[in-house]
Amino acid sequence: MRRAPAPSAAHLAPAATRLAPWRALGAAFVLAALLAPRPAPAQTPLPDPYDYDETVPAPKRTAPLRWQPVELGKPGHRYKIPVYANRNLAKDDLRDIKQVLIVVHGVKRDADRYYDTAAQLLTHNPDRARDTLILAPRFSGSIDSGFAGMAAWRKSSWEDGEESIQANGRPAPVTSFQVLDDLLRSLDDRKRLPALAGIVLAGHSAGAQLVQRYAILNNVDGPLRRDGLMLRYVIANPSSYLYLSNERPRPDGKGYAPYERGICPTYNQYKYGTDKLPAYSRETDDSRLFVRYAARDVTYLLGGADNNPEHRLLDKTCGAEAQGATRLARGTAYVQYEYVLAARGPKPVPLHRSSFEVGGVGHDNKGMFGSVCGAQALLGSGAQTGERAAACDIIPPRGK
């Protein structure tokens, strides 16, 4: 973990020595106050956990980007979601598309901003811009204006894979996991997308929480691969992860062990563990889930400066805190946890993983996806990015 620079001598100088001479009387009172005995300071309490039901407005745009209504589902249960894209999905000829990049927004539901981040990457890679389709779906909130008739969720429930709301003027409820299923299946269309070879599903923050759980639980990855479509997942700075055993990082940093249920009785319940998995998951055995997840192509991106334990949007429930104090700590612990699980048993489980710490970047999707490793995770090996792009360090197995 990178440390902040030490304060300068000027910052450490006694307050009285920095006061103007003509304020000597005031300085005397200040000095007396500083030298007076004080009671031992109480432990500073952590702020209240972030209220995920709180409305977080999306930043304003000077020229709003138009979204497109995309209809998904099956006969008898059709629904629409808003999607930002770099092609007209209803009219354009997509036969030249070789890669689809799907980016999932965070808690602010600012899919247009995430689209902008992906589109900016393509400006540095004009050769890929010609055959890359960007899709930025929006998991709208029930109170969001301008999205009438679209599937909508209660605040941030979509990040856990939950159902959309049931309300007049809205389609029948559908889980956000099912939305991703239907979106991916819609791309498996050789008549419309004959050149398509790969799909990247990327998320940051709350979007990364959805993508990580989806990468573990979905059942469409295999069929897509059999149809010749390589599916890759990019998971950047989530607040928490879905663990596939009852173990969590030990407080002393020495391995993993079952967490104390007296501290957090529900620490292993979904969305943090595999107790009470959602109905969407057809597989419920921890070991089989891990072997399947290990075989999937996953890249973890962790912000080297995403290390504030009091960050306003950090999940501070006990189930999340059992995984570590910060997003960086939780992510690093989870990367090592997978290495530990993979090495167990008489035959090691192959891990298809790439894991990076993005130097100097905090909780910022542009900095993460615009980094050297972020650009290559989204657009493939050799992808270019801006001159000020953050460098990345590979996160190796502990001890190597």
Summarize the structure.
This is AB hydrolase-1 domain-containing protein. The chain is of the alpha/beta class and 400 residues long.
DSSP summary: helix tally = 12
The largest β sheet comes out as: 9 strands, mixed
Silhouette: globular
CATH fold title = Rossmann fold
Helix percent band: 25-40%
State the name of the first-level CATH class.
Alpha Beta
Mean pLDDT: 88
The spatial strand order of the largest sheet comes to: 1-2-4-3-5-6-9-10-11
- How big a fraction of the residues is strand? 15-25%
How would you sum up this structure, described in words?
- It is a single chain.
- The longest helix has 17 residues, at 327-343.
- The protein is 26% helix and 16% strand.
- The model is unreliable at 1-62 (pLDDT under 50).
- The chain has 400 residues and is an alpha/beta fold.
- It has one domain (68-394): Rossmann fold.
- The protein has helices at 9-12, 24-35, 111-123, 126-129, 176-187, 206-217, 221-226, 286-294, 318-321, 327-343, 365-369, 372-379; strands spanning 68-74, 77-85, 99-104, 132-137, 198-204, 230-236, 247-249, 256-258, 297-303, 353-358, 392-394.
- Strands 1-2-4-3-5-6-9-10-11 form a nine-stranded mixed sheet, with helices on both faces. The chain has a two-stranded antiparallel sheet with strand order 7-8.
- It contains twelve helices and eleven strands.
